[in-house]
Amino acid sequence: MEASMIKRLDQELQSVEPKVSQRKIATVAKIAMDAYKYYKRVVHSVEKFIYKASPECKLPGLYVMDGILKESRKHHGAKDVYAPRFAKNLSSTYQYLMRCGSDDQVGVSKDSCQDERRQKKKKK
Fold first, then answer.
1. What is the pTM of this model?
2. 17 CB contacts (<8 Å, ≥6 apart)?
3. How many angstroms separate the CA atoms of 6 and 4, rounded?
4. CA distance 98 to 104
5. CB 103 within 8 A of CB 57
6. Span 42-86, pLDDT tens digits
7. 100 phi-psi bin (left φ>0, alpha ψ -120 to 50, beta other)
8. How far apart are CA 114 and CA 75, in angstroms?
9. Neighbours of 44 (CB within 10 A)
10. How far apart are CA 87 and CA 93, in angstroms?
């Protein structure tokens, strides 16, 4: 069961295109929720996708990560296991995200700043 879920996740990640749709992000997030017991493998697959993706697909990889985190927080609340696991390698993942063209770097920086602002507002 584990192998089939992870394989399905990898297939969905490989089909992510530079202009990723919200439906694709939701599909990947749903697969991640189905494979909740195997969260370490899911996180590894998403990080590996971001590391190996072409420069134009790195930002959609960040969107996928964000979609998984939001869905997990919505379903599991304080018992969310994805956020701490993604946080472990966040700095190296961010460095790989920045290894793209200068046009894409602006998008990555803007998105990460917007996410930080949203998190600060929620804490207040």
1. 0.77
2. 57, 60
3. 6
4. 8
5. no
6. 999 999 999 988 888 888 999 999 999 999 999 988 889 999 999
7. beta
8. 23
9. 14
10. 9
